Amino acid sequence: MAREQRRTDALAEALALPILTQNLTEGQKMPSDAEICAAHHVSRTVVREAFRILSGKGLIVARPRVGTLVAPREAWALWDADILHWLDKQADGTSQPFFDKWLADAMDIRLALEPSFAALAASRASETANSTLQNALRDLQQSRELEAEVAFLAALYAAADNIFAAYPQHLTRWSLRHRQSGPPLADYAQLTAAIAQKDAASARQIAFQALLSA
User: Fold this and answer.
1) Model-level pTM?
2) pLDDT for residue 111
3) Is 57 in the same domain as 143?
4) What is the distance between the alpha carbons of residues 214 and 65, in angstroms, rounded to a whole number?
5) Which residues contact 97 (CB under 8 A, 6 or more apart)?
6) What SS3 state is found at 77?
7) Which candidate, 137, 150, 158, places its Cα nearest to that of 176?
8) Domain that residue 112 falls in
9) Residues with Cβ < 8 Å from 194, sequence gap 6 or more?
10) What is the dihedral of CA 178, 188, 170, 118, to 10 degrees?
11) CATH no. for residue 68?
């Protein structure tokens, strides 16, 4: 069973990459089950399960009497952890326009959201949320590791006390993995202090500055 699942996951990734890199374009028909079975040496059951995964992530859509097509891009679950992980498999250190575009767009989203989350955190953070954020900052200052920074930003998002604030975290983690510099520790320290002091305007500005300086 585990082996079959690994085959399904591997096939889903293999079929997703041409879609994500636009080698298969929106509305283009996917290869038939028979073609995929022959090309990847898998059973039809594995193909159906892989298609189910891709459909669940919005990458493909089945049309009666037409077949399975690449779905419109607006339907893709682009913040999905698997999709971002699959995209990383295409990054080989070269300047690939599609990959560079994804990174730039991810930063746009962070610039749009993170300063607002910081301002909300300054207005709404509970004592517990502030304590969690301060502890996460100390952990980051000591380790300077990716996971510690992810945890700090997760604490920031949680402090915003907005149920939707958790959803960008996969995108944030992916963006951080491809950053060329280390974490902006001084900015994060100032941000944590501004939130504790309930200074929403400063928190917003510092969060924006932290993104631009990283």
Assistant:
1) 0.86
2) 97
3) no
4) 51
5) none
6) coil
7) 150
8) 97-213
9) 118, 122, 202, 203, 206
10) -140
11) 1.10.10.10
